[in-house]
Specification:
The structure holds 2 protein chains of 2 kinds.
Chain A (H helix, E strand, L loop, with lengths): L1 H4 L1 H6 L12 E6 L8 E7 L2 H7 L4 E5 L7 E7 L2 E10 L18 E3 L12 H4 L1 E3 L2 E5 L4
Parallel strand pairs in A: 1-8
Antiparallel strand pairs in A: 1-4, 2-3, 2-5, 5-6, 5-7
Chain B lengths: L2 H14 L5 H15 L15 E5 L1 E5 L7 E8 L3 E2 L2 E2 L8 E9 L2 E8 L3 H9 L29 E5 L2 E5 L6 E4 L5 E4 L16 E2 L5 E7 L2 E7 L5 E8 L10 E2 L3 E6 L2 E3 L10 E3 L5 E7 L2 E10 L3 E5 L3 E2 L5 E8 L3 H12 L10 E7 L5 E9 L1 E4 L11 E6 L10 E6 L5 E5 L4 E3 L3 E4 L9 E9 L4 E8 L9 E4 L9 E5 L1
Antiparallel strand pairs in B: 1-7, 2-35, 3-6, 3-36, 4-5, 6-7, 8-9, 9-10, 10-11, 12-13, 13-14, 14-15, 16-17, 17-20, 18-19, 20-21, 22-24, 23-24, 24-25, 25-26, 27-28, 28-29, 29-30, 31-33, 32-33, 33-34, 34-35
Helix pairs in contact in B: 1-2
Classes of the chains: A alpha+beta, B mainly beta.
């Protein structure tokens, strides 16, 4: 779960993100069943290494779930493979909260609604090809 | 295809690279034939394919005692094998909640699977692939959190109009007490979501509930109000990372028995990370319920156990409790595999009852009885208080697994009374049910089921604690069998 928790510091580094090239895929990430509370932190990765915590996400977003925002579109991503990590920051503290034994207490999910095996979903399970308009509908669990 | 046949063929293929010859096929068939020779007790670990609707049980012996009204909820694994892969350990089957309801002299039985993420995934993929206590699992497992591996198969507690299916390493799973439908995992407080809540909650005299959950050498100590809401949860550090299935409590103390079966590596399944180090001895950690930072540590010679009896403290500060103890964890490692195989010899000696005494001067001792016993249960009116009696299953012998009788041991007199059904019955844990309005310890019934191997049916028995050796005062029989379960609770 460490890499899930790592979304928060990565979000803090979001300022380093370069502007995306203005062509190719438009990725919409939606959370249709999310409760109207707090915010949803979304990070989009374009490589396995970065997805696994070795580098920054290609795109990030913070959705105002309390205000009813349940989807975000990332325009103009270069065609390629992507994977998404997201969690529901219920209390708005910007962190993925954990219980005293280190397990997440806020809902989280990965693209493809992939589930891991004793940890975050692998790149292999979460990756998807993006070209043109792509929608990822994710249930936070 | 059985693993033995598969490995035989794979081994043969690797050696010869040849296509299977008729000789190889015949040899493999012979191995299959051995595997198909199930033991006479194999019904006790059979698979159940679906929920069992409520049925009326038939009274086949005696008469329902006047005043006995309520429900015995019991939990236990009931699905081990799937075409694409199977559980290899007794503790890793899907939990199935049973409700034996006794009303107006009639008994009914229904059973329903705990509808867990584990069961849903494995049903969808047609394979048991989730790692567990002794089952390795495989790469197809979907485990985003510990409750994705929760088999909800070990025990049960009543919570209002729910029953909570308990496991060892995850949250309670709430099920409806009236129809056993699954309602969802219980989070006692948002910041404690997913914290382990073990399978042996202890009931305090005033009705509150204590429980533990373990992570290595740390434990969460749960304290629930009588209405099952959270009173408090504190994390304490432990002197070692032991495997612990049970703990016990007096009215004033929480008692953790740290056996020398210790986690040395992080590995799955759980048993592969544990090492048996009897030379380390067993430590007993006593925490003060009013201030968990007040602790005392006692040392005993090393022994293995799953189950403890309720503890009590005497005026001078002496603490006593009983344990079903054995020499080593071979049953937990190998015996429980034999049970799922449905044939073979269970290694190790059956557990015997022993009494542990923790003295005010810091000394501790352990006195073994010569009584073979497991699944100890005691009078709920005396939980955490001085008592004399331990009810328990009995009749296990070297080489043949599973109990065949019930017994009551009196720690004051040293006397044991038992009733032996014979090897055609697998006898399960029986709970202590006080007679209405009565206060004496022997004024109670024992209520528990068995698997009648001869008839292929589940039975429910009621014994009088004062005359257990006379056999059941009432026995009802269902029209089918269920596998043997683990632990139950009475809701009067």
């Amino acid at each position: 779960m460490k890499t899930v928790a790592a979304i928060a510091p990565i979000l803090a580094l979001a300022a380093v993100l370069a502007a995306a090239p203005a062509f190719a895929a438009d990725l919409t990430v939606s959370f249709p069943s999310v409760a109207p509370q707090g915010q949803i932190m979304v990070a989009v990765f374009n490589s396995e290494a970065n997805y696994d915590g070795e580098g920054p996400p290609a795109q990030v977003a913070m959705l105002d779930a309390a205000g009813g925002q349940t989807s975000v579109t990332f325009d103009g991503l270069p065609d390629g493979d992507y994977a998404v990590r997201a969690f529901h920051d219920l209390n708005g503290d910007g962190k993925m909260n954990t219980n005293p034994f280190g397990m997440p207490t806020e809902r989280f999910a990965f693209s493809n609604n992939a589930v891991g095996n004793m940890g975050p979903a692998s790149w292999e399970r979460a990756k998807f090809a993006a070209a043109g308009a792509v929608v990822q509908s994710i249930d936070l669990k | 295809m059985t693993p033995s046949r598969r490995s035989f063929l794979m081994g043969a293929a690797a050696l010869s690279a040849a296509v299977a010859t008729p000789e190889m096929v015949r040899a493999a068939a012979a191995l299959d034939a051995v595997a198909a020779t199930k033991a006479d007790w194999a019904l006790a670990t059979q698979d159940i394919e679906g929920d069992m609707p409520r049925q009326t049980m038939r009274l086949i012996h005696g008469r329902a005692p006047a005043g006995l009204q309520g429900a015995l909820y019991r939990n236990g694994p009931a699905k081990f094998r799937r075409p694409g892969g199977s559980a290899t350990h007794w503790f890793d089957g899907d939990g199935m909640m049973r409700a034996f309801r006794i009303q107006d002299g009639q008994a009914t039985l229904e059973a329903r699977f705990a509808d867990t993420p584990k069961r849903r995934t494995e049903t969808e993929l047609g394979a048991v692939l989730t790692p567990g206590f002794g089952t390795r699992g495989d790469a197809r497992a979907r485990i985003g959190s510990n409750d994705d591996a929760n088999a909800a198969n070990t025990a049960v507690m009543v919570a209002g109009d729910q029953v909570w299916a308990l496991w060892e390493a995850g949250s309670p799973l709430a099920m409806s007490a009236s129809d056993l439908s699954t309602e969802g995992f219980v989070t006692l407080r948002d910041d404690l979501k997913g914290m382990p809540f073990q399978a042996h909650p202890r009931y305090a005299p005033e009705g509150s509930i204590w429980n533990v959950g373990l992570a290595g050498n740390r434990a969460v100590i749960w304290h629930l109000n009588p209405d099952r809401s959270l009173n408090d949860a504190q994390v304490v550090s432990l002197p070692r990372a032991s495997y612990m299935h049970d703990f016990t409590a007096t009215d004033r103390h929480v008692i953790l028995v740290l056996q020398p079966w210790v986690f040395e590596t992080h590995a799955m399944p759980v048993i592969s990370g544990l090492a048996w180090r009897p030379e380390m001895g067993t430590q007993v950690l006593v925490l003060d319920k009013d201030d968990l930072s007040k602790r005392r540590l006692y040392d005993l010679p090393g022994f293995f156990h799953f189950h403890l009896g309720d503890a009590w403290a005497e005026r001078d500060g002496t603490i006593r409790f009983d344990v079903a103890a054995s020499g080593d964890p071979r049953f937990a490692v190998d015996g429980a595999r034999v049970l799922v195989d449905g044939h073979g010899v269970v290694p190790g000696d059956p557990a015997k009852l022993a009494l542990i005494t923790l003295r005010p001067d810091g000394r501790a001792d352990m006195t073994y009885s010569d009584v073979v016993g497991e699944f100890p249960k005691a009078d709920p009116r005396r939980a955490g208080l001085k008592r004399s009696l331990t009810a328990h299953t009995s009749g296990e012998t070297l080489g043949r697994p599973l109990p065949t009788g019930l017994a009551v041991h009196d720690w004051d007199s040293g006397r044991s009374n038992a009733f032996e059904f014979g090897v055609h019955q697998v006898v399960e844990e029986a709970v202590f049910v006080p007679k209405p309005g009565a206060t004496a310890e022997r004024d109670a019934w024992l209520v528990g089921p068995s698997v009648n191997l001869k008839d292929g049916r589940a039975e429910l028995h009621v014994f009088d604690v004062a005359r257990i050796e006379d056999g059941p005062v009432a026995t009802w029989q269902a029209d089918t069998a269920l596998p043997a379960g683990f632990h139950g609770v009475w809701a009067g």
